C-alpha cells in the first residue's frame, strides 16, 4: 500500500511539473505571437562572412556557398532583419509564405550573397513584418545603410583576435546614437559569428535587454581574414 501511494505521489508531482512548464512557456510567449506586423522592434543581424565560410569548409558544404565564399571578398553581410517582441519573437507568420519574386531576390545579392538565405529570411522573418516582399527588402537595405562598419573591419587581410567588447566599442564609436544596450556580438565556437543591432520600427537605434543578454561571453574571438579579391 505504501509503495502504491508513493508511486501515485510521484506521478502527481511529475504532472504538476509538466503543467508548470507549460504555463511558463505560455507566459513567455507574446500574446501577439505570429500576428504579421505586430511586433516591437527589429534586429539587424550582420554576419562575419569569413567565419561562415570557414565553418562551411569544415562541414564540407562550401560548394553550396560559392556565391558568398568564392570570388568577392565579403566582410560583414546581412543575415537578416528580424521583427522582435520585448520578450521573444514571431516567425513564419504566413504558411505558406507568399512566393518571393526572383527579381527581388537577385536585387539583394550585394547585401545578402546567398539566394537560399534570402528566400528563407522572407519565409521566416519577412512575413512577420507586415510588409510586402519588396517593401521588406527595401527596409533591409535602409537598415543596413543606417549602420557604418568600423574601418578596421572593412579590409581584414590577416586573422585577428579581438574581444566582443572591442567589437561593440568599435561599432558604437562609428555609429552615433548606438549604445552598448542596443548591440550584441555572438560567437560560434571560437570565431566571431554576428553583430546584432537593435532598431526601432523607423530604424533608429534602441536598447534591447533580451538580445544583449544573449551576447557572446568569451574573452576573445577569432575574426578570420577576408577571402577572395
Provide a descriptive summary of the structure in words.
The chain has helices at residues 2-28, 49-59, 66-69, 102-107, 115-124, 133-146, 164-174, 209-213, and strands at 41-48, 76-84, 160-162, 183-188, 191-199, 221-223. With 229 residues, the protein is α+β, with helices and mostly antiparallel strands. It has a single domain, classed as Alpha-Beta Complex (Ribonuclease Rh, Chain A). A 4-stranded antiparallel sheet has the order 2-1-5-4. A two-stranded antiparallel sheet has the order 3-6. The longest helix has 27 residues, at 2-28.
Identify the CATH class: Alpha Beta
Mean pLDDT: 87
CATH topology: Ribonuclease Rh, Chain A
Helix content: 25-40%
- Reported CATH architecture: Alpha-Beta Complex
Radius of gyration: 21 Å
DSSP strand tally:
6
**Total helix count?**
8
For the largest beta sheet, what order do the strands appear in spatially?
A: 2-1-5-4
Principal-axis shape equals globular
N-C termini distance: 78 Å
The major beta sheet can be summarized as: 4 strands, antiparallel
List unreliable stretches of 5+ residues. 12-27
Strand content: 15-25%
H/E series: HEHHEHHHEHEEHE
Amino acid at each position: 500500500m505504501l509503495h502504491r501511494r508513493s508511486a501515485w505521489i510521484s506521478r502527481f508531482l511529475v504532472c504538476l511539473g509538466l503543467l508548470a512548464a507549460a504555463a511558463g512557456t505560455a507566459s513567455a510567449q507574446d500574446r501577439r505571437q505570429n500576428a504579421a506586423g505586430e511586433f516591437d522592434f527589429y534586429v539587424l543581424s550582420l554576419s562575419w562572412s569569413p567565419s561562415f565560410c570557414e565553418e562551411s569548409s569544415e562541414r564540407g558544404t562550401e560548394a553550396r556557398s560559392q556565391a558568398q565564399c568564392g570570388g568577392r571578398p565579403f566582410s560583414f553581410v546581412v543575415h537578416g532583419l528580424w521583427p522582435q517582441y520585448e520578450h521573444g519573437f514571431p516567425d513564419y507568420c504566413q504558411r505558406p509564405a507568399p512566393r518571393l519574386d526572383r527579381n527581388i531576390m537577385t536585387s539583394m545579392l550585394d547585401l545578402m550573397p546567398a539566394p537560399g538565405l534570402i528566400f528563407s529570411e522572407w519565409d521566416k522573418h519577412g512575413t512577420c513584418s507586415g510588409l510586402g516582399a519588396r517593401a521588406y527588402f527595401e527596409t533591409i537595405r535602409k537598415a543596413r545603410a543606417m549602420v557604418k562598419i568600423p574601418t578596421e573591419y572593412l579590409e581584414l587581410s590577416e586573422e585577428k583576435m579581438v574581444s566582443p567588447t572591442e567589437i561593440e566599442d568599435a561599432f558604437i564609436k562609428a555609429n552615433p546614437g548606438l549604445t552598448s544596450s542596443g548591440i550584441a556580438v555572438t560567437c560560434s565556437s571560437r570565431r566571431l559569428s554576428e553583430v546584432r543591432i537593435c532598431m526601432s520600427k523607423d530604424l533608429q537605434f534602441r536598447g534591447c535587454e533580451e538580445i544583449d543578454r544573449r551576447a557572446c561571453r568569451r574573452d576573445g574571438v577569432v575574426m578570420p581574414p577576408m577571402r577572395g579579391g
